[in-house]
Amino acid sequence: MNAMVKAEGVHKSFGAAHILRGIDLEVAPREVFCLVGPSGSGKSTFLRCINHLEKINAGRLSVDGRLVGYRQKGDKLYELKDSEVAAQRRDIGMVFQRFNLFPHMTAIANVMEAPMQVKGETKAVARARAERLLDRVGLADKAGNYPSQLSGGQQQRVAIARALAMEPKLMLFDEPTSALDPELVGEVLDVMRGLAEEGMTMIVVTHEMGFAREVGDSLVFMDGGVVVESGNPRDVLTDPQHERTKAFLSKVL
Ligand code: ADP
Ligand code: MG
Q: Which family, according to UniProt (predicted)?
């Protein structure tokens, strides 16, 4: 079976700053893949490369068996056209630390927007799905609320529903609970746990080691733009092999 995400020797620089220094990893379909590491280690940059928000400088990166942003003919790579990039991006949902909801739209309008704009769906079809999704994240009764009338945890759950509205085959979570008050973290993790149980393939950048241990299928520890250690989350968290992993975990556990 194809990996859902495969990175082989992925490098990314910003000017002289060499941030990703040869990332190798594989995410299997239906896997919950947790990515942890100190601030500045390149976790967000890696997610952004998967989602076409940044272009890699070297290596190969593919999603569901297709190169991200390129087509290969023989041994030559050709950049995809904008429309082809857009088609690839449609299959990937991303949830950020800051919820980034459209402030002037209600919760349900936020969830309906992309399917209508990007896929040309009718309002009725988009609304029916948005109602289902808001119900699934426990917010059926908040459909008419504007973001400013929702708590951080509720806004983040709307953001998850909004990403799911495009029916992605891969979900990327970039520290989805880091901006939340502690008492609101659980409700967002519960929604993510439900998604995992339904078989969604997810890459989750998080400092929530309890979530990684209970829900994660694999855990990768990244530092300085490389994968330092990876394995079953329970193993890595209980018995880290590398000094850098030990030092990091002693701070977050
Ligand atoms: P993490 O998510 O692990 O905290 P990031 O991927 O956000 O790390 O950032 C890794 C490094 O890349 C940081 O030093 C950051 O300043 C740098 N960086 C990220 N994006 C850019 C950019 N667009 N231009 C220049 N430097 C960047
Ligand atoms: Mg980050």
A: Belongs to the ABC transporter superfamily.
For the Cβ of 106 lying below 6 angstroms from any atom of ligand 1, the answer is no
Asked if residue 45 has its Cβ within 6 Å of ligand 1, the reply is: yes
Cβ of 219 below 6 Å from ligand 1? no
Helices (H), the chain: 43-50, 82-90, 107-119, 123-136, 152-164, 182-197, 209-215, 233-238, 243-252
Q: Is the pTM of this model over 0.80?
A: yes
> pLDDT (tens digit, 0 to 9) for every residue of the chain, 253 residues total?
689 999 999 999 999 999 999 999 999 999 999 999 999 999 999 999 999 999 999 999 999 999 999 999 999 999 999 999 999 999 999 999 998 899 999 999 999 999 999 999 999 999 999 999 999 999 999 999 999 999 999 999 999 999 999 999 999 999 999 999 999 999 999 999 999 999 999 999 999 999 999 999 999 999 999 999 999 999 999 999 999 999 999 998 7
Output the CA 169–ligand 2 centroid distance in Å.
22
Nearest CA to ligand 1 atom 18: 14
154 near 160, Cβ under 8 Å? no
Q: Where are the domains of the chain?
A: 106-167
Give me ligand 1 centre to Cα 198, in Å.
Answer: 32
* ipTM confidence: 0.98
